[in-house]
Amino acid sequence: NIICSIVFGDRFDYEDKKFLTLIDWIEENNKLQLSIQTQLYNFFPTVMEYLPGPHKQLIKNLEKVDKFTTDIVMEHQKTLDPTCPRDFIDAFLNKMEQEKGNEHSEFTVETLSRTTLDLFLAGTGTTSITLRFAILILHKYPEIVG
């Protein structure tokens, strides 16, 4: 939720169905990434497109997560107040407006969607894994707690 507030400018309720579904997709993808088919897909995407396997579900889940972030970006575009940026997305949109005349600018809606997704996935994954390992270490070494 900290990452959500920085990137999206909003926190989700821990009982929010959309948020829980999003977390489920991410968790499922973390498991699917371990399969040999998914690893082969990284090296031979053209060949693996024609073969069944868990990599197909991973791609579907990524598309759903991408749509989630793209929808948030589109909502921000509609409600943007350039004088009062709420979060990373608003700051990026402001920079896009400044770069409007520059045809070589990397500040595009596609770049914004990808960057937002990258920040969200990286922040969500690393934070949850760090907390899990911290809890495991505290469980194994209870004397640290005291």
Automatic annotation (TrEMBL):
Name the UniProt key words of this record, in alphabetical order. Endoplasmic reticulum, Iron, Membrane, Metal-binding, Microsome, Monooxygenase, Oxidoreductase
Q: Which InterPro entries match?
A: Cyt_P450 (IPR001128), Cyt_P450_E_grp-I (IPR002401), Cyt_P450_sf (IPR036396), Cytochrome_P450_fam2 (IPR050182)
GO terms for biological process, alphabetical = epoxygenase P450 pathway; xenobiotic metabolic process
Q: What is its EC number?
A: 1.14.14.1
Could you tell me which Gene3D superfamilies the record lists for this protein?
Answer: Cytochrome P450
An example Gene Ontology molecular-function term: heme binding
Q: Which family does it belong to?
A: Belongs to the cytochrome P450 family.
Know the name of this protein?
unspecific monooxygenase
Give the organism the record lists: Chloropsis hardwickii
- What high-level taxonomic lineage is stated for the organism? Eukaryota, Metazoa, Chordata, Craniata, Vertebrata
